[in-house]
Amino acid sequence: MSEQPKIKVAPVRKSIEVRVPQARAFDVFTAGFGRWWPKTHHVAAVDMKDAVIEPRVGGRWYEVGEDGSQCEWGRVLAWEPPAHLRLSWHLNGKFQYDNDVESEVDIYFIAENANVTRVELEHRIMAPDAEALRAGVDSSGGWSVLLESFAKEAAA
Q1: Cα gap 151→97, rounded to integer Å
Q2: Residue 103, φ and ψ in degrees, nearest 5
Q3: Which residues are within 8 A (CB) of 1 and not within 5 positions of it... i.e. 6 or more apart?
């Protein structure tokens, strides 16, 4: 069986300003991941109970189902608190785990001042179904709504 050719598309870039210090923004995004990631945005067959980013290079980011099962989304490629996080993304355009997807998500936490942080996200996509994946993560239900959910949790 031959591997499908991978297509590279323009990256998806999103940004949001949160009125919290840089360290809090990073902490809410990572340690608080399961509190702000919408339960509707899961890939496993069962409903999602939690979402986790393991706090180290090589750690996983994954969902935990209501039945205790785990469904991996990718790996932590860079862990640089409180300024930067890079995640591999192995979900295809149907939001199913796929080793042929070579996407990366960079999240930068930029201190504008002591109490305001700008969060910049760039999702670079290289996958057999790159256009479909890009359309999904750049849609109204994609990264924009996810960052809004994160900002609400950070401000709480």
Answers
A1: 27
A2: -95, 155
A3: none
Q: Which residue has the tokens 């932590």?
A: 76
Distance separating alpha carbons of residues 15 and 130, to the nearest angstrom: 22
Nearest to 88 by CA among 102, 71, 108, 72: 102
H/E stretch holding 145: helix 143-155
> What is residue 3's DSSP assignment?
P
Let me know: does 103 contact 125? Beta carbons within 8 Å: yes
Report whether CATH 3.30.530.20 matches the domain 7-39+76-155. Answer: yes
> What is the distance between the alpha carbons of residues 151 and 16, in angstroms, rounded to a whole number?
8
Q: What are phi and psi of 26, to 5 degrees?
A: -60, -45
Name the pTM for this structure: 0.94
- Name the token pair of 50: 């939690």
Question: pLDDT per residue over 22-79, tens digit each?
Answer: 999 999 999 999 999 999 999 999 999 999 999 999 999 999 999 999 999 999 999 9
